[in-house]
Structure prediction request, 237 residues.
Amino acid sequence: MEPALTEALYCGPAPLPTDIWERWNLDPLLILALVALAFLIGRRPPGAVAIAVLVIAFVSPLCALSAALFSARVVHHVLLIGVAAPLLALAFRPGRPTLALPGLILSTAALWLWHLPSAYDTAMSNVSVYWLMQVTLLAPAVVFWRAVLHQGQSPGRSIVFIWTAFMQMALLGALLTFAPDTLYAIHAIAPMDWGFTPLADQQLGGLIMWIPAAIPYLVIGALIARRGWLTVADQRA
Prediction:
């Protein structure tokens, strides 16, 4: 089952370690979309960095590697919702502060839905569903970050929202880390070519979602807290 699934994946079949650096995704439609987005938002640092992150996620060999390793797919998802999404939020006009809660709910629902085994394997075996996964992960996350990073959002509320967003991801990561069996058919064989058992690969993915994924949330939360502290200091001066 697993080889047939990987053949149908947008990023191509699972690569071997010997050919991973040859597996750049040069899909013309993808490149055109990224160039158009670069013209739209790439003139300012947040937009330019966001484009670079999207290139890493979709063009670099990480795209192909995520066909082999669940842990690589987790890195891909964290880059989308924890790095690219807040950068895109800064690159576009601010959203409405009131959309923070709806954005959080939709983003959380999408993350958990796409990690259900049936939904995940379907996305990995169907290009249309694959892109539905990417859009529904990224778009609500951008809505969430636009609201959280809005100047009208109080720093305290922003930090609570950021903490909640990370904690739901950490909970999912913990469940994946301690799951007694492998969950995803797409990763039933390919991890062994990379020196992992399928369960070890799944556990590594859970740990990435649980611990290193906290870094962007901590950094953004710290910057917001600093902004709030400086605002209070200016008001008292």
About this structure: The two ends are 67 Å apart (CA to CA). The chain has a mean pLDDT of 92.
